[in-house]
Amino acid sequence: xxxxxxxPVSMSPPANSQNQSTRTKTLGQSDFMNLLVKQLQFxxxxxxxxxxxxxxxxxxxxxxxxxxxxxxxxxxxxxSQNLAAGIQxxxxxxxxxxxAGDALTLTGGTTGPISYQLAxxxxxxxxxxxxxxxxxxxxxxxxxxxxxxxxxxxDGRSGQGTSLPDGIYRVQIQALNKLGQxxxxxxxxxGKVDGVSFQNGAPILHVAxxxxxxxxxxxxxxPVKPAL
Length: 228
Known about the structure:
The chain is an alpha+beta fold. It is 26% helix and 32% strand. The chain has a domain at 96-221: Immunoglobulin-like. The protein has helices spanning 17-23, 29-41, 51-90, and strands at 96-100, 103-106, 114-118, 124-130, 136-142, 148-152, 167-176, 185-199, 202-207, 210-213, 217-221. The termini are far apart. The model is unreliable at 1-14 (pLDDT under 50).
């Protein structure tokens, strides 16, 4: 073991000690090996390190080396995955996508359609739109609707008919059957991908003014061709 009395002692603090302290919080491979060499140099010759202790410390060094190698490999894999995801996101440009989500981005008084699916016939469907503070600013109740896919186009106005400012809104859809029991409702966003951005390396698709994570995409469709 190291005899502290044989080590040089400095009474004055090193220059920029705060930065040095920050840099030495984590020990690397070279630091570990230097410590082991110093320990061997300053060990008590009358009581040297046992073979078992030396073997244990070398095993720790080997484990550190392996963990460092694994960490580098994981970083490389993450970079490769982010690059592949980015390329995949660009390939969505111009495609029609169906994605899970309840966000509506209002731009210039317009937004994409609200699409949803009813698990069974419903006697009443209530559609509520919330602003960024969680307040209901519009609520629409429709008559009976059959099981299947439906959509609603919001005009960007409040329940009082006032045009609302651009921003991100949320939509919630509730349905009841003829017995007054809740009906399962699946809602999504449907539209054309007209842009791709990246957040923390993950691609974000721009659909009808909405920003949708690539992981939320449920289905990809070919763009609808205009009739001749």
